[in-house]
Design brief:
Number of domains: 1
Bound molecules: copper (II) ion
CATH topology: Immunoglobulin-like
Strand order of the largest sheet: 3-8-7-5
CATH superfamily: Cupredoxins -  blue copper proteins
Distance between the termini: 33 Å
CATH architecture: Sandwich
Length: 141
């Protein structure tokens, strides 16, 4: 009971605090800070390191629309592909974006993924890929 109330109040601190974020603080009851925020055309931070089993939470902390989409070959062998919108591979995510903005994260939207295989994961924002909006999640044993 107490924890639930605390998380709700902590989540009400505001967007300035939400843009900072600390890995491993994600909970299910409230709205803690995201691990990765988004600027107009960049993830913030661009690279994050977590332990196996960690859930990374992204939040679109900007006013522009973005995606979080693992690249072709961007996940380690045996690891699960991840993408906002839940697509199975990059081509599916790309065609869904092109046809109907599939996978879109609008301002304030969140996406999360749990990483169970160690290694480096590369991901991009589909609409801003050409502009260099990419990020890396390093998952350590
Ligand atoms: Cu973007």
């Amino acid at each position: 009971m107490y924890r639930r109330r605390f998380l709700r109040e902590a989540g009400a601190v505001g967007s300035a605090a939400a843009a900072v974020g600390l890995a491993g603080c994600a909970g299910v009851d409230g709205k803690p800070d995201p691990d990765v925020g988004m600027l107009a055309a960049a993830y913030q931070p661009r690279e994050i390191t977590v332990s196996v089993g960690a859930t990374v939470v992204w939040e679109n902390t900007s006013a522009r629309a973005h995606t979080v989409t693992a690249t072709e070959g961007g996940v380690p062998d045996g690891a699960e592909f991840f993408a906002s919108g839940g697509f199975d591979d990059y081509e599916s995510a790309l065609s869904a974006w092109q046809s109907d903005f599939g996978g879109i994260l609008e301002s304030g939207d969140r996406f999360e993924h749990t990483f169970t295989v160690p290694g480096a994961y590369e991901y991009v924002c589909i609409p801003h890929r050409e502009g260099g909006m990419y990020g890396t999640v390093v998952v350590e044993e």
